[in-house]
């Protein structure tokens, strides 16, 4: 039966500040659903950026079958937009059996005919054998995206770890979750886990589909996009519960991005930090106002790559909050979100797979930048010329960038850009290319003095 795959991930703050409730729903290919719910304590007492969460997990069968309690699932949740897909891919179906991870990496659960079985699989690897397997298979050229599967096939227990051909130094920080599984590390047991075979690096997988990414396995649960409309309603409801912190980023044409955060109430302040304002508060909404009197256009906060809004207690960080916003070729942008051609909505453009916000550019470009004594800045920006979209990273002098102090950032002129272009509205991108000319940045002027840069308006 062909089923549309839908996932809803809903975050809501508890009354007690610093805790959040996650609800993640994954739909399996045969129509069953996995529902996970759990809480985690937020770093810095405001919102959870990263946490190891123990989710209460249940399975709901297709056609209204009774739910089955699967117990606790331990998975890491981050504030990354790919997290729902990465989490759902740990659940899959083989035949009439639903497979789910357990409370740790050694426990695996299997659900068949309404009955749940938990199996402990802990191969006792011999380091010498493992090293030999690595040498014979050029394991150093493989990477582990973090997906392990375990299944019982007749009298044999099969344990496999997915591997992808993803190379450091070629496209650093590429989204390897989307890289195809090329091989697996496979080990077998014929005595119910008492002993295991030596690990074998092989492309003859029993549990994964070779040539397909871990997130796109045909038997795995796959999430869909979170409804932006639902997010906006949640943010507005959240804003109505407390005081607002409002920061305005004004563009050269006098239009503005308005960033709103939720300030803690007096009770939260006393509990969190002895009555002192925290340095960051949750970013609740971003809107764009084209001109005084015009209706605001919503810009989803997650789209703007902002994780928190700095308060006055954050010091100079509040002055830098507008650095990701600007105006280029008459088009306003914030982060990797840009106003559509019709001027009615903002669209977030995913980072190109091969250059996802790299800490290091591709090897050949890295060597070129070394010869030019240039280094990448982090004010990534994008603009449009007709149907052609350009995404650019500014480049500054390596010597200038290294001259900064802890209390003062260096002021460095732009010496060029790395640019990627798309002719299909962001569906595909060209490789990064070095250029002295820019669509967005003015060479010779520091990032802080760019003519298209947004500036923080203090009231």
Word description of this protein:
The strands form seven sheets. A five-stranded antiparallel β-sheet has the order 1-2-3-4-5. A five-stranded antiparallel β-sheet has the order 18-17-15-14-29, covered by helices on one side. A hairpin with a 6-residue loop joins strand 4 and strand 5. The chain is globular, with a radius of gyration of 25 Å. The protein is built from six helices and 29 strands. Helix content is 11%, strand content 37%. It folds into three domains: 209 residues, no CATH class; 110 residues, no CATH class; 102 residues, no CATH class. By secondary structure, it is mostly beta strands. 35% of the residues are buried.
- Note the quaternary state here: single chain
Radius of gyration: 25 Å
Low-confidence stretches at least 5 residues in length (pLDDT < 50)? 1-20, 41-50, 78-82, 167-174, 224-229
Amino- and carboxy-terminal Cα gap = 59 Å
Return the domain count.
Answer: 3
Mean pLDDT reading:
76
- The number of helical runs is 6
The count of DSSP E runs of length 2 or more, i.e. the number of strands, is 29
Which properties best describe this structure?
11% helix, five-stranded antiparallel sheet, disordered N terminus, mainly beta, globular, 459 residues
Kindly summarize this structure in a few lines.
This protein is mainly beta.
